[in-house]
Amino acid sequence: MNTARNKPPQIVLRTIAGIRACGHADQFKVLANERPDWAARRREKWNAKQCAACGQIAQEKQQAEAAARRAARPGGVVDLFRLFRLPDGSTITLSYRATDATHGMWTGMLIADGRTIQAENDGVHRLLRALGRQWKASMAALAPVESPAEQQQPEKR
Ligand SMILES: [Zn+2]
C-alpha distances in angstroms, 8 versus 36, 46, 90? Predict the structure, then answer.
């Protein structure tokens, strides 16, 4: 299981049947040229760990939970649409501008309730988060951001 760096490949002499921490039967590998105390310590860890199949399931579950936490985190991109509502008719415009051969910048404009919020970032997701944060901040301050006359929409609520 260990990916050895700058080490000769492990030579498995034989395997010993055993039970992993998850309760599943598995084969412990007895390696050639392994110091007995290292082998004993490795066996202890082997006994305390779950089998590869259970480890895979646990890892996938952890990744799914981490993804859900990221999505729900304040300021997460999902936030913009899930944790608070933009007014009906809100519009987001994104435009990309190359700054050199390999880099570029995204400019975003959120128009909602006749107000315009602008932000700039080299990443689309960070830009959406920035627009969301600025929108929330502007709502909290209840200080309307100046908007161009042609962007005026009828007042809601
Ligand atoms: Zn198992």
Answer: 18, 21, 62
Q: Is the pTM of this model over 0.85?
A: no
Q: Report phi then psi at 135, rounded to 5.
A: -65, -45
Q: pLDDT per residue over 6-35, tens digit each?
A: 777 789 999 999 999 999 999 999 999 899
Find the 50 Cα to ligand 1 centroid distance in Å: 5
How many angstroms does the Cα of residue 148 sit away from the middle of ligand 1? 63
Position of tokens 């050639």?
A: 32
Please name each of the domains of the chain with its CATH number.
Answer: 12-72 (no CATH), 84-151 (3.30.160)
Residue 60 C-alpha to ligand 1 middle, in angstroms?
Answer: 14
Distance of CA 55 from the midpoint of ligand 1 (Å): 7
Going from the Cα of 37 to the center of ligand 1, the distance in angstroms, rounded, reads: 26
Side-chain half-sphere exposure of 156, counting CA atoms within 13 A: 10
